[in-house]
Amino acid sequence: MIEVNCKALTQMTHLCIPYMRKNSRIIQLASSAAFLPQPNFAVYAATKSYVYSFSRALRQELRSKKIYVTAVCPGPVDTPFFDIAEKTGSTLAVKKFTMVRADQVVEKAISDAYHKREKSVYSTWIKFFDLVSKVLPHKVVLVLMRMFK
User: Fold this and answer.
1) At what angle do helices 9-16 and 42-61 cross, to 10 degrees?
2) Which run of H or of E encompasses 116?
3) What is the pLDDT of residue 82?
């Protein structure tokens, strides 16, 4: 996971940048898991935090070249991901409640990148989660998450 989400993403991004022109867009797929540590999802959340942080910093580095980076931070997306993950572990039940379609996330991400937004967050639930993760101490949010397990 670290090799794909961190190393490969970084290498591919840096390989492409020299070929990009003014007003180009880079879309990086982070996750709402990037907003705070997640027990039983620790490595995934940590790698997505890397993607989010890398995207935000890269956006500033490329600002003078007018290359815009958007970090996509969806919540649970209806893909085989959770079926596979739950074969060896468990995920929060609330994730199934907040599940969205992949095409909706993609449409929003492309629109947000077009409008030069730093972050793309689809769904009211995940926007709320983003806000809560900024306002409340992570320690409190982690206790609340444990209650929803």
Assistant:
1) 20
2) none
3) 65
> Which is the catalytic residue, given 19, 44, 50, 68?
44
What's the half-sphere exposure (Cβ side, CA atoms, 13 Å) at 105?
22
Those residues with Cβ within 8 angstroms of residue 35's Cβ, 6 or more apart along the chain or in another chain: 52, 73, 129, 130, 133, 134
CA-nearest of 140, 11, 137 to 3 is 11
The model's pTM:
0.86
Which pLDDT score, from 0 to 100, does residue 27 have? Answer: 98
**Longest Cα separation, the chain:** 48
Instruction: Clarify whether 114 is annotated catalytic.
Output: no
Q: Cβ(35)–Cβ(129) under 8 Å? A: yes
DSSP for 46-82, written as a single string: HHHHHHHHHHHHHHHHTGGGT-EEEEE----BSSTHH
For 87-110, the pLDDT digits (tens) are 665 555 566 667 889 999 999 999
